[in-house]
């Protein structure tokens, strides 16, 4: 109890001393330099993927910044598992790793508009300011068919050889595509690029943002929150069966690190 009273007394003294700092000194410590705009590049990781982006903002007031953001993310299904059979059928060529049951590679481009609102001043120039942020806008999903190298036996002149063919999932090869013994491995990533299709959607997010050196010329932010993607149809990541179903939406937690500049 005595220790608690002592700490409380010290805290009151510190608060009293701080309140006696001149108003000019407080302005220097808490307001710093006022900038008009800021820009930053960022990397982010979510529970279902990762991506890079660019953000530009207008500092409307000390507490409010409006921004536009563009980003490109690769998303995946958490049920995806990588396999590697490490087999060689000819020319000592080892098989590449592959994801069993995968239907498409999906990339999402998002164009967002949002706001950051800072909750309070920070006490010292090198401190951390806390803000909340929200943004929304449109998404364009880029859906590229996932290709596997499949094994086809070829009996010619009494000799059995094995042909390797790069194929996407179709109704004609659906049995072979999910037969583990008939999969040689993953195909080149560029296979199927010409067949990429578009999946329109919407995106929204809300987060907490921690600005390191809020009044510095350099932007250094850490952001964490929740985001939601909603598309016009199911996100075709996996081959569907009784246990695996694709959905037209995806809600995930994310963390983002941003670095950039502020200017007048």
SSE map:
Blueprint lengths: L1 H18 L3 H8 L6 E10 L2 E11 L4 E12 L6 E2 L14 E2 L4 E15 L9 E18 L1 E10 L2 E10 L5 H4 L5 E4 L10 E16 L5 E14 L17 E15 L1
Antiparallel strand pairs: 1-2, 1-13, 2-3, 3-6, 4-5, 6-7, 7-11, 8-9, 8-10, 11-12, 12-13
Provide a descriptive summary of the structure in words.
With 264 residues, the protein is mainly β. The chain folds into two domains: 1-30; 31-80 and 107-146 and 190-263, Porin (Beta Barrel). It is built from three helices and 13 strands; from the N terminus they run H-H-E-E-E-E-E-E-E-E-E-H-E-E-E-E. The strands form three sheets. Strands 1-2-3-6-7-11-12-13 form an eight-stranded antiparallel barrel. Strand 2 (49-59) and strand 3 form a beta hairpin. The two termini are 52 Å apart.
């Amino acid at each position: 109890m005595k220790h608690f009273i002592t700490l409380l007394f010290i805290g009151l003294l510190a608060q009293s001393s701080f309140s006696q700092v001149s108003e000019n000194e407080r302005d220097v410590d808490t307001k710093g330099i006022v900038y008009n705009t800021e820009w930053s590049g960022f990397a982010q990781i979510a529970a279902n993927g990762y991506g890079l982006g660019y953000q530009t903002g207008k500092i409307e007031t000390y507490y409010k910044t409006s921004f536009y953001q563009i980003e490109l993310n690769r998303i995946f299904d958490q049920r995806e598992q990588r396999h590697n059979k490490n087999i060689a059928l000819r020319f000592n060529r080892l098989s590449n790793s592959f994801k069993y049951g995968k239907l498409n590679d999906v990339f999402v481009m998002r164009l967002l508009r949002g706001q950051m609102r800072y909750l309070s001043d920070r006490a010292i120039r090198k401190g951390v300011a806390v803000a909340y942020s929200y943004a929304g806008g449109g998404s364009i999903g880029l859906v590229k068919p996932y290709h596997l190298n499949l094994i086809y036996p070829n009996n010619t002149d009494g000799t059995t050889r094995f042909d390797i063919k790069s194929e996407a999932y179709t109704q004609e090869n659906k049995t072979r595509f999910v037969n583990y013994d008939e999969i040689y491995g993953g195909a080149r990533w560029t296979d199927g690029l010409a067949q990429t299709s578009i999946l329109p959607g919407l995106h929204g997010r809300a987060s907490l943002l921690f600005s390191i050196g809020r009044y510095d010329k350099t932007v250094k932010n850490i952001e964490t929150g929740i985001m939601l993607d909603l598309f016009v149809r199911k996100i075709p990541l996996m081959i569907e069966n009784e246990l695996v179903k694709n959905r037209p939406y995806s809600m995930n937690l994310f963390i983002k690190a941003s670095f950039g500049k502020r200017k007048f």
